[in-house]
Amino acid sequence: MKLLFTNSAKYLELLLFALVLAFLIAVSGCSAYKSNSGIEVAYDFEVIHSQDKVIEWPDSDFEERFSKYWGLRFEGETGEIYKMEAPYFRAVVPEGQHRNYVRGTSRNTLKSIEIFDKKKRTDHFFEISMRLHFITESGNHSTTDRRDRWVKVDDDWYHIIRNQVIFPQIS
Amino acid sequence: MIMFLSRYLYLIKTPLYLYALSKAAIFLSVISVCMILLAPAQSTAGENKQQESRLVASGKGIEIKQDDVIRMEAFLEENTPFRIPQGELARYTLKMKIFAQEALQKGLAGEEWKAYQTSDPKEIFVFSDVYIEYLMDNYELDESVIVSYYRSFPERFLKDPESDEVKERLRERGYIPEDWLEPLDEVRQDIRAVILRNKQRQIREDAFNELKEKYEATIH
Questions:
Q1: pLDDT confidence of B8, banded at 50, 70, 90?
Q2: Which residues pair with A132 in a beta bridge?
Q3: Does a structural domain hold residue A165?
Q4: Which of A122, A125, A111, A126 is nearest to A48 (CA)?
Q5: Are B187 and A161 within 8 A, CB to CB?
Q6: In this structure, is residue A27 part of a structural domain?
Q7: Per-position DSSP letters for A107-134, written without gaps between them
Q8: How many domains are there within chain A?
Q9: Which of A93, B25, B121, B156 gives B72 a disulfide partner, CB atoms 3.0 to 4.6 angstroms apart?
C-alpha cells in the first residue's frame, strides 16, 4: 500500500511538472513571427531590422520563403530545406551531402534574424546582409553574420549556397 | 625382436657403415633443405597464376579476371593521371568494361564494331569514353537548372566586365540591369557544360548502376 502511494505521488509529481512545462512553452511561444502579408509563420523567432532601416521585401512570397527556410533550417528539416535550394545546386549536390552541411545548424535554437540590408542585385537575385541570433546547445547566446542570397525562378524564390569549399561541384 | 636386432648390431659399429651412413644423412639433408626452400616459390607461382585467372566480376557477356584488373591498373598508371585505390580497381574495370560494351552494342563506335569484344584496357578505355560522351550529350537538364545558374551568378555573364561602370557597380554590390548581361540563349550551352562537368561523376555512377542491372553484373 505504501509502495502504491509512493508511486502515485511520483506520477502526480510528473504530471504536475508536465503541465507546468506545457504552460511555459505556450506562454513563451506566443511571439511567432507575423509576415507583412498577414500569414503567420509558425516559427519561434523574430525577423528584425537593425537601425530602424526597414527595407521592403520585393514581394510577400520572398519574405515568407526566407522565414520558412531559416525556421526549417534551425529545426533540422533537412529534406524540406533541400527542396528550397536553387535548382542548379540540387542538380549537382546530392541530398546527403547537403544534409551533412546543414545538420549542424539544428543543434542551436534560433531566436531572431537581424537584417541589416537587402540588396536587389538583379531583377531575380537578392542579397540579404543579416545576423543570426541563436542559443547554442550549451545554452549560450551566440551570433553569426552572413550574406544570404536568393534567386527567383519560375515565380518561386530559392536559397543559394555558394560554399565552394564544402561543395566544389557548384563552381 | 631383441634377438633379431642383435644380429645386425655389429654392423653399426663398423667404420665403413658409419661413413656411408653419414654421407647418406648429408645427402638427404641437402635434398630436404632444397625442397623446403623451393616449395614456397613453386606454390607462390602457382597461386599467382591461379590469382590472375580468378574471376573478379561477371555478367551477361562479361567476364573480368584479376589479370584484366592488373592490366587496367598498369594502363592507367602509364597513360593517365588517374589512380584508383586498390579496393576499387575491380569495380572500376567492370564499369569501364560495361560502358565500352554498351557503346559497342549501341553502335556508337560505328556499326562495324557492334559485335566486337575486347579485353584490351586501351580499347576498353577508348570505347567507354565514347559511351560517357554519349551520356553527357543526351543528359536532360531541366530548364530551371540552367535559368537558376544564370540568375545566381550574374557577375559571370556580364557583357562588358572590364568597363569602369560595371567594375564600380560590382564593387558596391549594386544593381545590375538585365541588359548588362549576355542573353541566356547565348550562354545556355556554356552553363550546360559547366553543370554537366560538375555532375559528371553522379551521371556516370547512375548509368553504371542501371547498366549493372541490365547486364546482371556482379563483383565477386
A1: low
A2: A113, A144
A3: no
A4: A111
A5: no
A6: no
A7: GSEEEEEEEEEEEEEETTEEEEEEEEEE
A8: 1
A9: B121
What does the pLDDT look like over B127-162, one tens digit per residue?
999 999 999 999 999 999 999 999 999 999 999 999
Cell of A132: 543570426
Residue A49 per-residue DSSP state:
E
CB-CB neighbors (< 8 A) of A158 in chain B = 148
- Strand runs labelled E in chain B: 55-59, 62-65, 218-219
Grid cell, residue A90, equals 540540387
Collapsed DSSP state (helix, strand, coil) of residue A99 = helix
Max CA-CA distance within chain B?
123
In a domain, A5, yes or no: no
> Residue A106 is part of which domain span?
46-160
Which residues of B are less than 8 Å from A152 in CB distance? 151
> What cell numbers appear for B75 in the block?
594502363
Residue A69 C-alpha cell reads as: 527556410
Contact state of A88 with B195 under an 8 Å Cβ cutoff: yes
Q: Nearest residue of B to residue A160 by CA position?
A: B152
Q: Alpha helix locations (H) across chain B? A: 2-6, 9-13, 15-52, 66-79, 89-105, 121-138, 143-152, 164-171, 184-214
**Tens digits of residue pLDDT in B26-78:** 666 666 665 666 555 555 556 666 666 899 999 998 999 999 999 999 999 99
- Smallest CA-to-CA distance from A68 within A31, A35, A108 is with A35
Nearest-Cα distance to chain A for B150, in Å, is 9
- What does the block give as the cell for A113? 534574424
Which residues make Cβ contacts (< 8 Å) with residue B84, sequence separation at least 6? B73, B76, B92
**What is the domain-level CATH number for residue A82?**
3.10.450.100
Q: Are B109 and B131 in contact (CB under 8 A)?
A: no
Note whether residue A168 is domain-resident.
Answer: no
The dihedral of CA B143, B149, B151, B155: what is its sign? negative
The amino acid at residue A80 is E
What is the C-alpha to C-alpha distance for residues A97 and A81, in angstroms, rounded to an integer? 13
